[in-house]
């Protein structure tokens, strides 16, 4: 990825969130510095059930990178019972301050869909994070189209985090598979920055299929290349870690659909 500064056009695109009905004109890796395009629906799938915390961490990080605050986090009582309550210290370590988070826990999926539809229209929000577990049949093409239309109208970024679910057709502008991977150790043998193995499964109007390993830079609120990165793979928009976890691990089981 180039270290060159963003152009004026790119800066305007980051601020405005782009024309929601058009393809995102930014470079395919612009999300590393500016988060995902605002005012749109994006899907983030956990590559495996155990990667649920990684998918959530990635979602929080992209919201912070975009400066799309405050975050309204929507989850069901069943999901909270299965995974436990949010870990405040962990969120602080990512850079999400308590006063930038609104947590809403609803009884079931139907209530979550109704609440999400209302929240996505609230222009006072920066990000609506909808966390779901399992098949969640209510998140179909019709429901995601409604969320996308609401996001376009309000400017709220909607992140749908899916854990334990197969990919299904949707109106999302981008779709990602996320898995946990080891951090790069610091010189003092201290834990390194949060690291994610990602694959872009879908990007409306742009290239998809790229895979990478990235680390979250809390201070600069952007994603960095790990120090072990080599030259980008020919034809790929995102570099691969040669010999690293992203290179050794087979493609994520969640695939493109819709």
Overview of this protein structure:
- This protein has 258 residues and is of the alpha/beta class.
- It has helices at 8-16, 31-34, 52-66, 77-83, 88-94, 109-119, 141-154, 245-248; strands at residues 41-46, 71-76, 101-106, 127-133, 157-163, 174-180, 195-203, 211-217, 222-224.
- It has eight helices and nine strands.
- A nine-stranded mixed sheet has the order 3-2-4-5-1-6-7-8-9, sandwiched between helices.
In short:
The chain is α/β, with parallel strands linked by helices. It is built from 8 helices and 9 strands.
What is the fold's blueprint, element by element?
Layout: H1 8-16, H2 31-34, E1 41-46, H3 52-66, E2 71-76, H4 77-83, H5 88-94, E3 101-106, H6 109-119, E4 127-133, H7 141-154, E5 157-163, E6 174-180, E7 195-203, E8 211-217, E9 222-224, H8 245-248
Parallel strand pairs: 1-5, 1-6, 2-3, 2-4, 4-5
Antiparallel strand pairs: 6-7, 7-8, 8-9
